[in-house]
Design a protein that fits this description.
Blueprint: H1 10-18, H2 27-39, H3 54-70, E1 75-77, H4 79-101, H5 107-114, H6 116-133, H7 137-160, H8 166-174, H9 197-216, H10 227-241, H11 245-261, H12 265-279, H13 282-296, H14 307-324, H15 348-379, H16 387-406, H17 418-431, E2 451-453
Antiparallel strand pairs: 1-2
């Protein structure tokens, strides 16, 4: 495909985008499927196809349809693709080696620890190819995503309110019995249809930041004026109901950043009032206070740290780090029952180190660097008449920055929710560069971020 050497006018750019869907028979259905993939990524395996989550079934189905529709116009590649491919290969190979060398490990351990990055690679590949072939895909995906997240937020609020059937639905779809039979030491929390509260909260936080960024950039998502504020109220309430404070702060803080940066003071004030009202309602206020008290308790061993952080530091230093000491290069492998350690590593970095060693950590960090670098370069090639891409790229970058910190206390990129949503949005954003080429006045090459057609050249 050839690139344009001049900056296209707004009308020319929009015309090319509008006409870039000739290879896609039903672009709205494609957008809905891409928005649905991260939404159902927390479901249990085997609901529809044995061994697969609903999100994986959807991704495979969309991949097949795109290959049939696009043929030689199906694009793969780019720096993020190769970085994610390397990370996926290292993880799968190292975990497989541990499996072969240990009688305590089985196929389930390989699926749980070795296939996560491969699923992200599949989702990214599908999103990239779709973004490179379908005009206005990103806008439609965001529309459906916000509606789905609003439904999820409403369900989560029903769960924290104790409405009959709301927790049963989540337990059936995710296979997590803890949702239905909450331990006495846990406070009630909204979880949507995700397996964990962190996965649900991260999905809601990223959706909120993207939605508010689009609002701040003046993008009109729905024809009816009441739809967007209603969705935002449900998403905000749903995020708060997760009682996952790190993600709640990231989501609300990111939303406030875009509103204040673009001068939307009235909207920011209204949102703050809504949050205050919801947090002070009778049952929410009591649950919130109990959660804060439990998380902020000071322990004797780490007196300067709150309980939630001190607990993690203790299990890292006592249980997980010693596992890697004998084999730092490839790590200890999947956690076994015989290891007699806490079930969860409670950190993305510790989990990668224990599972795949230094090799895995390096491949993961390379992927993250390539991801951030590609998005930063993408900000320089966004057309002046494309506020949707500008908003989403900046929202994703802000979220990733916060995620780098929060991954110290939870393996978010190894969990459902934001990990799949992140690669969907990034894939579409990076793939969409192929629709009309490079629009910058600068002519510096960015071929490292541009994919290549599987066969031949793709026409724009």
């Amino acid at each position: 495909m050839t690139t344009t050497n001049t900056v296209l006018q707004g009308s020319d750019w929009k015309a090319q985008i509008a006409g870039a869907t000739s290879d896609i028979r039903n672009p709205r259905l494609l957008a809905f499927c891409l928005a649905l993939i991260p939404t159902v990524s927390g479901t249990k395996r085997g609901l529809l196809v044995p061994g697969l989550r609903l999100s994986e079934v959807l991704a495979i189905a969309v991949l097949g349809l795109l290959l049939m529709n696009l043929h030689r116009h199906f694009r793969v590649g780019g720096a993020v693709f190769w970085g994610l491919l390397a990370y996926s290969a290292v993880t799968a190979v190292v975990v497989a080696l541990h499996w072969f060398n240990s009688s305590d490990l089985g196929p389930r351990d390989f699926i749980a620890y070795g296939l996560g990055p491969i699923v992200l690679l599949l989702t990214f590949t599908v999103s990239y190819a779709a973004g490179a072939a379908c005009g206005e895909l990103l806008l439609n995906v965001c529309r459906y995503l916000i509606l789905l997240a609003a439904i999820m937020g409403g369900l989560a609020f029903l769960q924290i309110a104790g409405v009959a059937g709301s927790r049963k639905l989540a337990s059936v779809l995710t296979g997590n019995q803890t949702i239905l039979n909450m331990p006495n030491w846990k406070v009630p929390r909204g979880i949507g249809i995700f397996h964990s509260w962190h996965a649900y909260a991260s999905y809601m936080a990223l959706t909120l930041i993207v939605a508010i960024a689009l609002l701040a950039y003046g993008v009109r998502l729905y024809n009816r004026a009441f739809v967007f504020p209603t969705c935002m109220a449900l998403v905000g309430i749903g995020l708060i109901s997760s009682l996952t404070f790190g993600m709640a702060l990231l989501g609300l803080g990111g939303a406030a950043y875009f509103l204040l940066r673009k001068g939307k003071w009235a909207v920011a004030t209204l949102g703050a009032v809504l949050i205050l009202v919801v947090s002070q309602t009778s049952f929410v206020s009591d649950i919130l206070s109990e959660r804060v008290n439990r998380q902020s308790q000071i322990t004797n061993e780490y007196g300067f740290l709150p309980q939630t952080v001190a607990f993690r530091v203790a299990i890292w230093t006592r249980e997980f780090i010693p596992l890697v000491a004998d084999n730092p290069l490839t790590g200890h492998g999947p956690i076994r029952a015989s290891d007699r350690v806490f079930q969860y590593a409670e950190s993305m970095y510790i989990l990668v180190l224990v599972t795949t060693g230094v090799i895995g950590v390096i491949s993961f960090l390379v992927f993250v660097v390539l991801l951030i670098g590609s998005l930063v370069r993408r900000t320089r090639s966004v057309h002046i008449s494309d506020p949707v891409t500008s908003a989403v790229v900046e929202a994703v970058l802000l979220f990733i920055i916060g995620l780098l910190v929060l991954m110290f206390i939870h393996p978010y990129l190894n969990d459902a929710g934001s990990s799949e949503l992140l690669v969907v949005l990034v894939g579409i954003v990076l793939g969409s560069r192929h629709l009309i080429g490079d629009h910058r006045t600068s002519q510096r090459s960015e071929d490292s971020d541009r994919g290549v057609p599987v066969v031949g050249k793709a026409g724009a």
